[in-house]
Every structure is written in structure tokens, then in C-alpha cells.
Amino acid sequence: MKKLILLGACALLAAAQTHPLAQLIDSARQGPDTAGLADQIEKTIGKKGGAQVWGEDYLFVVPSAAPATVSIDGQPAREMQRVGDSGYWMRLEKMRVGVTHAYQFFADGKPLGNRSDVPGYNPDSYPKPGVSQGKLSEKFTITSKIYDGMKADYWIYASPGVDPKVPAALMVWQDGQTLINGDLSKLRLFTVTENLVAQKRIPPMVYVLIAPGFSPDGKAMRSVEYDTVSDRYNRFLLDEVLPEVEKLYRLRQDGYSRGIAGESSGGICSFNSAWFNPEKFARVHSTIGSYTSIQWRPDQKQDGGNLYPFMVRKLPKRNIRVWMSDGADDLENDHGSWPLQNIQLANSLKMRGYDYHFRFGQATHDSAQAAIDLPESLTWLWRGYDPAKTSEQFEQDPSEKDKPYYRVTISNRDSW
What we know:
The protein is α+β, with helices and mostly antiparallel strands. It folds into two domains: 20-123, Immunoglobulin-like (Sandwich); 130-401, Rossmann fold, CATH 3.40.50.1820. It has helices at residues 12-18, 20-29, 37-44, 189-198, 222-227, 232-245, 265-276, 308-314, 338-351, 368-381, 398-401, and strands at 5-6, 50-54, 57-63, 68-72, 78-79, 81-82, 88-94, 100-107, 110-119, 135-136, 140-143, 151-158, 169-174, 205-210, 258-263, 283-287, 321-327, 332-333, 336-337, 355-361. Strands 1, 10, 11, 12, 13, 14, 15, 16, 17 and 20 form a ten-stranded mixed beta sheet that branches. A four-stranded antiparallel beta sheet has the order 2-3-7-6. Strands 5-4-8-9 form a four-stranded antiparallel beta sheet. Strand 16 (283-287), helix 8 (308-314) and strand 17 (321-327) form a beta-alpha-beta unit. Helix 2 (20-29) packs antiparallel against helix 3. The protein is globular, with a radius of gyration of 22 Å. 44% of the residues are buried.
């Protein structure tokens, strides 16, 4: 069995000196010619550039052969500084936290890539003094019979308080490969989890961080796994993946003690799992969910996620709790409208009395909104959890019942 390795951030005072993001911001603050700054950028932001945040400091970086500028929150583009003699350009700004900020890079007056968003993290997304750290396993790989020889990687994270011999609460996170780098990943999932467990706002949990698989001929299986409306992915998790996880950690078997989470296609995948097996996954964390027609195949009688708003309204109610979020600038393409489908699904959940919460911001198809929400969303999803129980009838909050349905207005063009 592969050895578990200790993860987690140092205490906050030490973090100010040792955390790589704190070090990066400190180096950038000293100026663009600071020795080793380009190397720090590659390690913490990556060669493609982007943004990282520590406190109120936001560092924007882009690779460009020509002088670059950055527009933040739709404001006129501002000059960036060249990092030493490298091909990187940077700008350091102090900005508001607790919100998302939009940014767009330019060179020679032309956009460099697409607009993106950066989260202004809340306090529980930073390491805190005295908080215990969780454990992340090395990578495991599974070969699936249910998906005809598909290979998929996964990791197992155990939060503080998990005893391998005592059945633990569980969350399965789709696109797990994007979460394993700790605070260098946008969600900062491990730090948030450790802070919330320490505050007893969520129970100690085992996370299964699973990556999309590849078929024997190398075909990416992500959309087939995530966007298909059927119980096939559930059978993969329940019959193949989780039995392997239980060789390391015992897991609670009741849906009350299990959640499932994902973004984009991973978001609909999570809702799909709870829809088909609410007795195994009763808590859903869906952000920028792809409730669109990506895998709709009417000629093959295969349903697509675009049908979920209507299935929720007309099919028997499931006993599940659902956190959803999306942004007004999310995708619009031939598969459908991400913002409109999320709004439609939220209204359907409200109509049928589901225990749900919908957060709607301005962000694009991006993790930024999910990142600033994560301490709140996990707390909301697991509120009232009692390890002595194996079930609960989830009911819509009375305050939600008193609110109206979501209504849409046009904000970016003349509506006539």
C-alpha cells in the first residue's frame, strides 16, 4: 500500500514567511527585477500566466513578446512591468476581497487569451495557527470494467479527525487532478477543509479526488463519464472506486454522510449521481454546472443534462441537498446556455421544495466564484450533520420558501 504523505499549510505566522504564495507576493512587491522572481512565477502561477492572491495583494502575470497591459473589472488597461529579462509581464494591485475580479490581458492592443476571473479569498481560505493538517495519498490508478478498460487516476485525502478504522463521512470530487496542489489550486480545498473541521463546522471527512479517465485507445472520457445522464458513472464509483478506497479508510455507507462535488461537467456529474442514487450521495456541490445538451443523443434515446430542469419539476422528488453557483458571463454555445440552465434548474428545485441554495454572480466559466464561496458552501451543505444519524428528510428552508423565483433581465444590450 502506498505511503500516505502529510499535507497542509503551516501556522499563519510561519506561513507569512514560508508559504510560496506569500513569498511570491513579497518578491513582486520588491519590484520586477527581484532575483528569482521569474522562477517563482513559473512554480506558483505557471508558464501560461494568470493571477494569484495573498490577502489584499493580487499579482497578475502574462507571457508576451510585446509590452503587455491588463484590464481589471472592465476598467481601462493598465501598464504591466517586465519581469527581469524574462518573457513575463506583471502588475501587483491591492483590491477588495470577498468578491471575484475580472481581468483581461492585452499586447499590441489585442487580447491575449480570454477574460478570466480571480477570487478575493475569505479568511478561512488561508492557513491558521494551530490548525491540524490532513493527509493526501500518492496517486492511484484504476482500470474500469464498467467503462471497458478505461484508466483513471485518483487520490485520497483524509481530513484531521479521520480514523482509518472508523467509518468516515465522504465527499467525491470530480476533476480531482486540479485540486491536489493545495493552496496553488484555485479552490484551496485542503486549507478550507482543515479550518472548517477545526471549527466543527463540517465533520472530519475522506475526500476521493478522481480525475477523468482515458479509454485504452487514448480517448478522453471526461464528457462521457460526466455529462451522460445515466447511472453508469455511479456504478463505476460505487462498485469499482470506493471498494479500493476502503482498503485504506472505512467509509460511511449512508447517503446522509456522503457528498459529491464538481465544476462544469463535474457539476452535472455530481447532481446526476445524487439523482440516480440519493441513498448513496445526498449532498451535492455543483458550480458552473453544465446542465446543457453536451451528451444529448436523441437518435440513441440518450438524455442530456438540458432535461434536468424539467425532470426535477415532473419526476418524483429525491431526498437531496443541493448547493449551486454560476455567473452571468458563463458559457453560451451550441450545447446551450450555462447561466440560463442553472437559473432554470434553481427555479425547478425551488418549485419542488428541495433543500437548495443558488449563488449567482458575474463570473465567467471559472472557479473564482466557487473559491470565494467554499467555506460557506461546505458549511451550508453539511450543516446540522449528526454522526449518530444515518438519514434526514431534507426540507427547504422557510426563508427560501418566502423568496420569489429567479427572474432574468438583459444587461448587456438593448432588449428591443
